[in-house]
Amino acid sequence: MEVDLLSDVKRRGLISQISSPETLEKLLKEKQTIYMGIDPTAHALHVGHLLPAMCLMHFHIRGHTVHPVIGGATGLVGDPSGRTKARDTDSLADDRIEQNAQKLTASMDLFFRKGIQYAERRWNHEGESIQAPEILNNLAWTKDVSLLEFLRTVGVHARMNTMLGRESVKLRLSSEEGMSFTEFTYQLLQGYDFYKLFTDRGCRIQIGGSDQWGNILAGQDLISRLAGPEQEVVCLTTPLFTTSSGEKFGKSSGNAVWLDGTLTSPFDFYQFFARTTDEDAPKLLKMLTLLPMDKIEATLEEHKAAPERRVAQYLLADELTDLVHGVDGVRQAQAATKALFAKDYTGIKAEDVIDALRGDPRLVCCLESELFDKPLLRLAHEHHLVPSMSAARNLVSSRGFYMNNRRVEDTGFMLQRSDLLDGRLAIVRAGKGNHLILALSDA
Ligand SMILES: N[C@@H](Cc1ccc(O)cc1)C(=O)O
């Protein structure tokens, strides 16, 4: 099943820079401990975290020990990397960071649990199932270090010219706002994490996004000064993926696409990937799924022959939804996709559609009394499918009002139980693409 880890992550496009490729190759002849940090600036993981997280996953499922580290301490300081301005004090407030850290830990744990199940399905894993990684919080080893101790162990080894030469610092020093001393020390805090994990857990590899290069090197420097230059440690970064339209990957009309199903429904998550461009879909299939490369190549051939069928996009949406929401999530998202975009509803399961669209304004659950006692046009108006009753009537006369893909011709049309799909759903459509899904409540 296994392709060599390093060649696999490289050919999938998951690697941007490696501080010492020879050392990495040598280290990977044995099982290693690897870490990746993430600051609790948000309370949940979003699609933008997937790239470094999948890189970490590749190490994890091949039996290396990986540690996602939540930055309970670093989050209070705020990483200046890639930022032209300091974070505001509100977003750095203690209680906010602590709450975010707790939620992020749960979010990361869930990501790995689901991801491992996905990996086991894709790789036909046999034998004992893979355990979820232990998630750490850097507050654990930072909170009791006194200022004097920090200055005397870490500070003495930090070279000012190296620190001033980091991209994150140069960028800010040349800006009008400048940089606070607190932010300037961020690289030392992250460096201290690498050093601590190296001494306490034998961790020799740190992974991060490409904007983390300087911070990761700071750790490598510190290890070399404190533990000796002969110590073999490696910094590894993943690329920052920019979409073909030049945007940062992970936003849908300006909003983050979350991995948490209560923040972004499995259906919206699925649709985000189904809407990927022809240019981006192949890259994302390689970077973010665990499908074997030959299966991806075969799909891409098929895609090239008939791009309008969007096989690459649908495969990507299926795989990522499986990775993040499991097989139930895929089934639900596909059911909702069918409800909103297909001509044929055979086999549709009401429960799946309802689960996938929970929280979506297009889904409205109704009691029997409402559903069967009001004319459909009135329901459409009350639930905002059409702006007014007269607009609804106009749509009927211009043959643009549909219920379960049947044209509604009578403005007084009332739903009957026998009209419902799977005993519960009426999919009402105004014109080409506006939908209202009325679902009979099960209560
Ligand atoms: N600086 C990283 C997060 C991080 C925190 C602590 C670490 O030890 C490593 C990484 C970021 O902002 O994304």
From TrEMBL:
It is an enzyme of class 6 (ligase). The keyword RNA-binding applies. Its EC number is 6.1.1.1. Keywords: Aminoacyl-tRNA synthetase, ATP-binding, Ligase, Nucleotide-binding, Protein biosynthesis, RNA-binding. This is Tyrosine--tRNA ligase. Transmembrane segments: none annotated. One of its GO terms (cellular component) is cytosol. One of its GO terms (molecular function) is ATP binding. One of its GO terms (biological process) is tyrosyl-tRNA aminoacylation. PROSITE patterns: S4. SUPFAM superfamilies: Alpha-L RNA-binding motif (SSF55174), Nucleotidylyl transferase (SSF52374). The keyword Ligase applies. Belongs to the class-I aminoacyl-tRNA synthetase family. Residues 374-436 form the Tyrosine--tRNA ligase SYY-like C-terminal domain. It holds the Pfam family SYY_C-terminal. It catalyses: tRNA(Tyr) + L-tyrosine + ATP = L-tyrosyl-tRNA(Tyr) + AMP + diphosphate + H(+).
